[in-house]
Amino acid sequence: MHKGALLGALREAALEVLSPTRCAGCERPGALICDDCLYQLTPIDPLHACLRCGAPFGDLLCTECDRAGATAGQASRVVGATTPTPLAPGGKVPADPQRALGRVLATAVFAEPLPRIIRAYKDGGERRLAPLIAQMLYDTALHAEETAPGRYGGILSDADAVTFVPVTAAAFARRGFDHMEAVARPFAELAGKPLADALAKHGRSDQRALGRAARAESAQGVYEVVADVRGMRLLVLDDVITTGATLSAVAEALAASGAARVEALALARVW
Prior knowledge:
The chain is of the alpha/beta class and 271 residues long.
């Protein structure tokens, strides 16, 4: 073993003795996310998720999209097991030309213990969670492509590159890292896709206290495209979808810069 690697291993072992690893969800010692907390997650079934916002049970009528004022046929009624909407050639859901953001997929409902896990990562500084979250997102995409190919086929395999929703400079200074960049890097390696560090965020750093209308307003114009994305099919990673305002603003910025397709994958969907 290389001397540097040996010193690192010894340092990790010493830290483990002084401060044992605890579950980010329940604080039991032993694992960063214990099996009990993983079992308590409420996964979102890709066969029935809303394709526009990632909400569960949105294949017939998505109350989130409906509440946001979506029109029937364009947002509220999407392709599902019992809907008559025809599929595009190849059995895939047709794109909506009026909307920059394509399909949206989320791993699980934003319910405990997932909020505690996300807080431990973003605000508690438990950076070791990044590769675990990346694995969860990767498994979500693979599962969706395998079990619901007519709805989510190609969401990962057809992507030219992976990108992520960035934090503001103020948030980076406060936390010391960009939490979604740290997830996107191992995710891209798992997926065998290039990572496109394509976006910069300006303005408000935290939308958690804002309502739907305020989120939509604050997200407009704050994302700047800083890389060449012309003609690219992009998969955008984020941690939590609340109203979808952030992802919509990101997609609009990327589409305006020439991206051919923008779709999204998130760890949690507020419901």
